[in-house]
Design goal:
The protein is α/β, with parallel strands linked by helices. It contains ten helices and ten strands. The strands form three sheets. A six-stranded parallel beta sheet has the order 7-6-5-8-9-10. The chain has a two-stranded antiparallel sheet with strand order 1-4.
Length: 270
C-alpha cells in the first residue's frame, strides 16, 4: 500500500511502518500463535511530518530508567535529530506543561485564558475524584519519599543533549500541538522520549490522544524506554508491551535507523 497524497516536487520520505496484524491469511488457523507483524509501504512528504519529543529529561527518580534513557539519548536520539534537522524535519519538544509554558522556544498558540484549568464535571463528585472527605479511605497511601520526588520534578530540565534549537518548537499541551500541526499542515507524528508506558501513551500530547485527533502516529521504538517492575526488568516487558499495544491498536512503529536510511535515500535522490 503506497500513499501518494503529497504535493508535487516535495521532499518525500520512503518508510515501511510496522504494525501487529490480528488477521491471518485464508487457510491458516485463526489463533494468536499464528498472528504476526506486518509492514506497510509509505511515501510521505517531510513537510507533513514532525517528530514529537516527549519528556526528554535530565533525570529520573528510578536509577535504571535514567541509565537506559541516557544510553538511548546518546546512541539513538542525538544522531537521529542531527540528521532530521539537516533534512528539514520539524522537531516538536513536548515537556510537561509547567516546564514548557515559559520556554523561549514555545510556539504560544494558546491564550492565557485557554491555559486555565476547565471547571470540573459535576460527576463523579469532586470529593470522590480527589479522594477527600467521605472518600478519603479510597486514596492511595502517602509515600514517605513523595516530598523528595516532588522536589526532583520541580528541578527537571530538558536533557542537555536534546535542547530545542534552530527551527525546533516547544508546545505546552496537546491542543497547542494540534494547532501548530493544523497551521503547518502536519499529518504524521513520529514519537520518541520517555517513558514508553506512561507519558508516551497518556499525555494529552502523547500517542493515544493525538491518534484520537486523527493524526497518523508512529513510535520510534528504539528511541524510548519505559518504567519496569522487578518482574519485567530483565525482559523490558513494560517497554515492549507498550510498543506492541500501539502496534496492535491502529498505530505504527519504526526504528531510528529506518528513518535515517530513508533520509539518506532522500538525499541521494536530490
Amino acid at each position: 500500500m503506497t500513499n501518494k497524497a503529497y504535493p508535487e516536487n516535495s521532499n518525500v520520505l520512503h518508510i515501511k511502518p510496522r504494525y501487529y496484524r490480528w488477521h491471518v491469511n485464508p487457510g491458516i488457523d485463526w489463533t494468536e500463535a499464528n498472528t504476526r507483524y506486518a509492514f506497510l509501504d509509505w511515501e510521505i512528504p517531510i513537510s507533513q511530518a514532525a517528530i514529537v519529543l516527549v519528556d526528554v529529561w535530565t533525570r529520573h527518580y528510578l536509577r535504571e530508567p535514567e541509565e537506559r534513557a541516557n544510553k538511548v539519548i546518546e546512541e539513538r536520539i542525538v544522531p537521529l535529530l542531527d540528521e532530521c534537522r539537516h533534512a528539514g524535519f520539524q522537531l516538536i519538544h513536548a515537556p510537561a506543561p509547567e516546564h514548557a509554558i515559559d520556554h523561549p522556544k514555545r510556539i504560544k498558540l494558546l491564550s492565557e485564558a485557554e491555559l486555565k484549568p476547565k471547571p470540573s464535571a459535576p460527576w463523579p463528585p469532586e470529593a470522590f475524584r480527589n479522594k477527600t472527605g467521605l472518600y478519603a479511605k479510597y486514596a492511595r497511601p502517602t509515600e514517605p519519599r513523595q516530598p523528595e520526588l516532588d522536589e526532583l520534578r520541580a528541578k527537571l530540565t530538558l536533557h542537555p543533549l536534546v535542547q530545542p534549537e534552530q527551527n525546533d518548537i516547544v508546545v505546552v499541551n496537546g491542543e497547542e500541538l494540534h494547532r501548530f500541526c493544523q497551521q503547518q499542515g502536519i499529518l504524521f507524528l513520529f514519537f520518541l522520549g520517555f517513558n514508553t508506558n506512561a507519558c508516551i501513551l497518556m499525555r494529552d500530547y502523547g500517542t493515544h490522544e493525538m491518534s484520537k485527533r486523527g493524526y497518523e502516529v508512529i513510535i520510534i521504538r528504539d528511541c524510548t524506554t519505559g518504567m519496569e517492575s522487578f518482574e519485567s526488568q530483565a525482559t523490558l516487558a513494560q517497554t515492549n508491551g507498550a510498543i506492541l499495544f500501539l502496534e496492535m491498536f491502529g498505530k505504527y512503529s519504526l526504528t531510528s535507523e529506518d528513518i535515517r536510511s530513508a533520509l539518506k535515500e532522500l538525499a541521494s535522490n536530490k
